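Protein modeling request. Please complete all fields; requests missing the sequence field cannot be processed.
Requester role: graduate student
Desired output: 3D structure, token encoding
Chains: 1
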Amino acid sequence: MSTDQFGLADGDYVPDPDRDTAVLIDGFYDHIRAVSREQALPGDLLVTAMRARHAELEAANAHMVVDEPARYNLRITLALVAGYETLRPRLGREAAIRTVRDALIKPLGDAVREGTRAMLDAAPDPFEALVAVSKAREVYAFGEGFTFRRPADDDRRYLLEVHRCFYHDVLVANSAPELTPAMCAFDGNWIEAIDPDKDGFRFDRVTTIGVGGTHCPFHFTRTGEG
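Delivered output (226 residues):
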């Protein structure tokens, strides 16, 4: 059975925010339900409460929706807030952060890694293929809620820098900036799929806004002389 559930290996990937968001959020709540049961907590009741709080938060933050991608990004980010608010009184701050972080990155981790790897393996030019995915996501998955700068965009380097992060803005507005690193960590799923020796390029992200940086550098650089 194919693990490339997002169609990354086809070479003409276009993000589907409605599908991707639904899959991500369902996985998020399923993970929290399972972890809660393991800790002798009422998982079904907690998730029901989280989903209700999630809906309240979406209504209260609707003014932050600046375009269609922001609608989905708001939904994803506020799922973390709803989970965190519900779990923190029961688990404590650090455990609640860890739980919602894991719930975001683990359910789709294998699928994203394997889909990215399949795309890179199938691509005549892995550097070009992953840069194309990045550019598609900038338009269709991120949109006007993010501010991008591109110091370099040529055949050897694609240096993308995020100077405004919608995820962080939403979390700050909802008194939960400590959750921003969880959003950053989700990228690790596709970053880990890159093999510089095999793919002929490296990816560097030395900091993020979520960990105190002034911006988030997403730097793709070819290796070698070719």
